[in-house]
Amino acid sequence: MPSDRSTHSPDVHAASAPRPTLRQGGKRQFSDFDFPMTKAEAKVRITKLRAEVNRHRYLYHVLDKPEIADAALDSLKHELLKLEQEFPELITADSPTQRVGGQPLGGFKKVRHLKPVISIEDAFSVVEVADWQARNEKLLSEAVKGYYGELKMDGLAMVLTYENGLLVRAATRGDGLVGENVTGNVRTMESVPLRLEETSRRLPPRLDVRGEVVITKAELARINRLQERLHKPPFANPRNLTAGSIRQLDPQVTSERKMDFYAFEIVTEVGVRTHAEVHKLLKGLGFKTNPHCEELADLAAVERYLKRWESKRESLPYQTDGAVIVVNSITQARRLGSVGKAERWMLAYKFPAEQATTKVKDIIVQIGRTGVLTPVAILEPVLVAGSTVSRATLHNQDEVDRLDVRIGDTVIIEKAGDIIPDVVEVLKRLRTGKEKKYVIPKKCPVCGSPVVRKESEVAYYCSNTQCPGRSCEGLYHFASRVAFDIDGLGPKIVDQLVEAGLVQDAADFFALRGADLTSLNRFGEKSAQNLVAAVAARKTIALDRFVNALGIRHVGEETARDLAQHFGSLSKLMAADRAAFEAVKNVGGVVAQSLADYFATKESRSLIEKFKRAGLRVESVQPKQQGALAGKTFVLTGTLATLAREQAKALVRKLGGRTSESVSQSTDYVVAAEHPGSKLERAKKLGVRVLSEAEFKRLLNS
Questions:
Q1: Which entry of 48, 110, 152, 415 is annotated as an active-site residue?
Q2: For residue range 221-279, what is the model confidence (pLDDT) as tens digits?
Q3: Which residues contact 108 (CB under 8 A, 6 or more apart)?
């Protein structure tokens, strides 16, 4: 793997604005794996999806040993459901879409539920929510009389049974028909009333209440610190910890873990008219209910509720992956009933996931600003983290080989924040035999020059230093957010300026005039003035941003900051030789030689002089004070619950530390958040200290 992934990754613009790229040999080809499917192809795909979903459901629900994230499994199930809806004649009784839950584990007595605890249909967009409403209103022959919104807490489903007001049994969901009797453990939870509060409403002798047992993110962090001290494996997420705690044979262990039971449904008939009244009654009976549940008048209110909690969910103390929308009228809910194994009157809306499954339609290469050839997977478009993704970086040939990713494979992709998606796993059991292996081309697909690989490096390079592909990528990088951050100067505009002959190097951006632009497509007088003004606003730039913007091989954001801090000014930096560069902290021989080579060339010095003539001013840097994290290197992996990734990096730098994109012997800490990647495994191999998010924040505040 490369020492600095950002150096070898496609520009972030590639994720949001795909550009025309060439396949090996320079010819555009169409994939053999495009939809739509024939019935025969759908049958093969459905069979494989069922086997894969069943396997992962067994690992998760029965063995508590998940191999993939919930979001990825949801994505597989959603694809299966859609295919079965398209080909209903292929639905079979043993399909995962026709069943719920998993088999109960041994060690507890089995309990048959009074009424089956059946599943809820998933929706992944507001369009699907609107479709659900349309189907229901067609069945009802009238409008739905409002909804009730409930946050979908990530925990363990539970059914509590009360007889004459006393708790007599607590059972897990199990397979939906039969669960496990865990009464002894549940009785230890303070949030579960052992006797119901008195109410003026006449209640039946037996009352069955459904809800969720939940553990907070803070409690997960506390338990995992204890696991670490005991040299035991950590729990992957709060749901796994909840399941493990409830299934303890010793109730004393359960009592030592802080869990809450949130009630949300009364199975027994109690004479209420709406779901909102159910929640009010539950609270009156002494149950804890989620304070963020809400009556919603119509579909517009539902959409506002979903959007609000999608943006605020990270602030919640527990994990949530969505919300449950319920038809508020009990009468209408009963009339709707259920279909197959799902209730018609409720819908589980899933917030945009940071992982999803999709198919690799093709693999192409992009030429980076330093001439690196980066394999990029062209994907069947899929919604991930709130945006539609159609490509993902594969980094280099070694990564392609490690993952064994092939054209036609079904893969799990992951996207965090603004980072271009990664392929994190190949689901090989879904292969049909038609998949094609990929190998980096021997000639550059842009200019036809030989492709070379240097010893001790994983990257392949175009040998032509004047390759047009390299030139454009360098310009994209120069204008990007991490460099000059020029508003409105994206890849498409850069391509247009290059094709028109207005820009040959980055210094030409500062010579652009409004009159030059108005003759181009998509440019009016106002948009031309806006771009010229945006460029002019960047005529003063910090030294580290300028160095990063130059696109020097092996020099990314962190190295640029180290150089700026060490030398203080551009003139001193340009006067340095290899030995002076090697004296900079965190700069090794390879990077030092690359810097020395760059500033020694006539072309590089001429470009910097051209910047000065254009009026560019590079600000010098004052030496920074020593911070609490001075000299410490951090690597972040996974999705942080309470901080944006860039915010976390900025806090580390503010305290004198530095961040890196790769784990090495020089890494001091790896911060492992939700869904950590391969960096966590490498950290364990190298013996690098791993911090949870809570530990990381304590270190920042110490």
A1: 152
A2: 888 888 778 777 777 678 778 887 887 777 777 777 888 899 999 998 898 999 999 99
A3: 180, 181, 182, 247
